[in-house]
């Protein structure tokens, strides 16, 4: 995955932020909407596209477009930086293939100890009962 190649395929759109903020919200388009067309991307291989598609299936639209928003800062430039960084982190994590877990074998001594402890607990509980006087 080449960051520069992927960044060149991103498209940004500035829109008005929602919420409180007074006049600044009404006249400044500081919110940034990032879109990335997954299917038509030249930066990712087919395997990488499939991996991203499966891992980010809840965030990808039906047209396989990934959309991210950022309106954290008052500056459009800063929001663009934040959303780009967030996007790259998202793609990097989606492309990670988790290491396969090898099940460990339980040592025989551990099994023996567990059974011995169970027998001890059983004995303790037996000794709590009232003695049979008949």
TrEMBL record:
One GO term of the biological process aspect: rescue of stalled ribosome
SUPFAM superfamilies, alphabetized: Release factor
Domain of life: Bacteria
Gene Ontology MF, one: ribosome binding
Keyword Transmembrane helix: no
Prokaryotic-type class I peptide chain release factors domain: residues covered: 16-32
InterPro entries: Pep_chain_release_fac_I, Pep_chain_release_fac_I_sf
Catalytic activity, EC: 3.1.1.29
NCBIfam families reported in the protein's UniProt record: PRK09256.1
Family, per entry: Belongs to the prokaryotic/mitochondrial release factor family.
Protein's name in the database: Alternative ribosome rescue aminoacyl-tRNA hydrolase ArfB
Organism of origin: Flavobacterium yafengii
């Amino acid at each position: 995955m080449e960051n520069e190649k992927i960044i060149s395929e991103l498209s940004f759109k500035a829109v008005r932020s929602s919420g409180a903020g007074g006049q600044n919200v009404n006249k400044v388009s500081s919110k940034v909407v990032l879109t990335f067309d997954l299917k038509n991307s030249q930066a990712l291989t087919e395997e990488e596209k499939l991996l991203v598609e499966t891992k980010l299936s809840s965030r990808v639209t039906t047209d396989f477009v990934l959309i991210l928003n950022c309106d954290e800062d008052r500056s459009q430039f800063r929001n663009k930086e934040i959303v780009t960084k967030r996007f790259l982190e998202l793609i990097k994590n989606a492309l990670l293939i988790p290491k396969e877990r090898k099940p460990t074998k339980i040592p025989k001594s551990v099994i023996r100890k567990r059974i011995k402890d169970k027998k001890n607990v059983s004995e303790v509980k037996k000794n709590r009962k009232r003695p049979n006087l008949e």
